[in-house]
């Protein structure tokens, strides 16, 4: 009987740190969402978008990668991105495949870069683009 109580106590003591961690994680996730005011915060894909911010507007993603000194259009960008801000970087060229999967893109900010070359067809599949 005493051995059974001891094992239950040991099991509880092992589960306590895990329960505490999960509770803290839930609280912190809610705090980050609340403090930023951005609602649900989707993770930007890793790679070149690690420092970018993503916001789900309900109709698509708004991805902001401005003033990060990047020199190429980052990839991959979420397919349902509707606003992409790449302003204030060091992008020197825009290639045909850079926006290939972004058919829902409506707004693209590229100002204050060092663009010296735009490959023909770079914006071909941007059927919904309203502002460049």
From TrEMBL:
<keyword id="KW-0732">Signal</keyword>
<dbReference type="InterPro" id="IPR001611">
    <property type="entry name" value="Leu-rich_rpt"/>
</dbReference>
<dbReference type="GO" id="GO:0005886">
    <property type="term" value="C:plasma membrane"/>
</dbReference>
<dbReference type="InterPro" id="IPR050541">
    <property type="entry name" value="LRR_TM_domain-containing"/>
</dbReference>
<keyword id="KW-0677">Repeat</keyword>
<dbReference type="InterPro" id="IPR032675">
    <property type="entry name" value="LRR_dom_sf"/>
</dbReference>
<keyword id="KW-0433">Leucine-rich repeat</keyword>
<dbReference type="Pfam" id="PF13855">
    <property type="entry name" value="LRR_8"/>
</dbReference>
<protein>
    <submittedName>
        <fullName>Uncharacterized protein</fullName>
    </submittedName>
</protein>
<dbReference type="InterPro" id="IPR003591">
    <property type="entry name" value="Leu-rich_rpt_typical-subtyp"/>
</dbReference>
């Amino acid at each position: 009987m005493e051995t059974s109580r001891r094992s239950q106590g040991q099991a509880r003591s092992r589960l306590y740190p895990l329960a505490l961690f999960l509770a803290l994680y839930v609280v912190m996730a809610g705090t980050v969402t609340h403090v930023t005011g951005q609602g649900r915060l989707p993770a930007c894909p890793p790679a070149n978008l690690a420092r970018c911010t993503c916001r789900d507007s309900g109709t698509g993603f708004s991805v902001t990668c401005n003033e990060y000194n990047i020199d190429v259009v980052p990839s991959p960008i979420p397919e349902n991105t509707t606003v992409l801000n790449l302003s204030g970087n060091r992008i020197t060229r825009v290639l045909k495949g850079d926006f290939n999967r972004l058919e829902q893109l409506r707004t693209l900010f590229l100002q204050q870069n060092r663009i010296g070359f735009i490959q023909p067809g770079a914006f071909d599949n941007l059927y919904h683009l309203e502002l460049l």
